């Protein structure tokens, strides 16, 4: 699996290509690639539209991306959540912590709106 970054939406849009599973087999490499891309200059949209399965190590990757964005003073939103992945996030209550959006454009718009609010960093 490879991580493809894109800045076209005015945010760091991370997409995963090469397999439909974010699992033990790919988690370490995906995490390292994605974390290397997250900086202080842009909020992050994590696009999971190509992911149909996530295991505990994959969930750990998602949490790490969320925490890295926050540590850098940025926000992260997740998009393109397949039903099986959504079920996992709901079971472990991450759907209450992560901001989930139907598509990358909606997530980017929400992030831009958040930044425009008074008191936003």
Describe this protein's structure:
The radius of gyration is 13 Å and the shape is globular. It has helices at residues 27-37, 56-71, 83-91, 104-116; strands at 2-6, 12-17, 21-22, 44-47, 53-54, 76-79, 99-101. Helix 1 runs parallel beside helix 2. With 121 residues, the protein is an alpha/beta fold. It has a single domain (2-116), classed as Transcription Regulator spoIIAA, CATH 3.30.750. It has 4 helices and 7 strands. The strands form 2 sheets. The protein has a 5-stranded mixed sheet with strand order 1-2-4-6-7, sandwiched between helices. Strands 3-5 form a two-stranded parallel ribbon.
Count of discrete alpha- or pi-helical segments spanning 4 or more residues: 4
Number of domains: 1
pLDDT < 50 runs, ≥5 residues: none
Q: Kindly state the mean pLDDT as a whole number?
A: 93
Return Rg in Å: 13 Å
Helical residue percent band: 40-55%
Q: Looking at this structure, what is the CATH superfamily?
A: STAS domain
Mind telling me the CATH class?
Alpha Beta
Structural class: alpha/beta
CATH architectural category:
2-Layer Sandwich
**Main beta sheet:** 5 strands, mixed
First-to-last CA distance: 33 Å
- Form type: globular
- Give the spatial strand order of the biggest sheet: 1-2-4-6-7
Structure characteristics:
121 residues, alpha/beta, Transcription Regulator spoIIAA, 4 helices
């Amino acid at each position: 699996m490879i991580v493809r970054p894109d800045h076209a939406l005015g945010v760091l849009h991370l997409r995963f290509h090469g397999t439909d599973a974010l699992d033990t087999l790919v988690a370490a490499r995906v995490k390292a690639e994605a974390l290397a891309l997250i900086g202080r200059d842009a909020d992050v949209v994590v696009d999971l539209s190509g992911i149909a399965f996530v295991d505990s190590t994959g969930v750990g990757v998602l949490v790490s991306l969320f925490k890295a964005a926050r540590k850098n003073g940025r926000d992260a939103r997740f998009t393109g959540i397949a039903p099986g992945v959504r079920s996992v996030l709901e079971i472990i209550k991450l759907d209450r912590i992560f901001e989930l959006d139907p598509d990358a454009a909606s997530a980017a718009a929400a992030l831009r709106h958040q930044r425009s609010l008074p008191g936003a960093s």
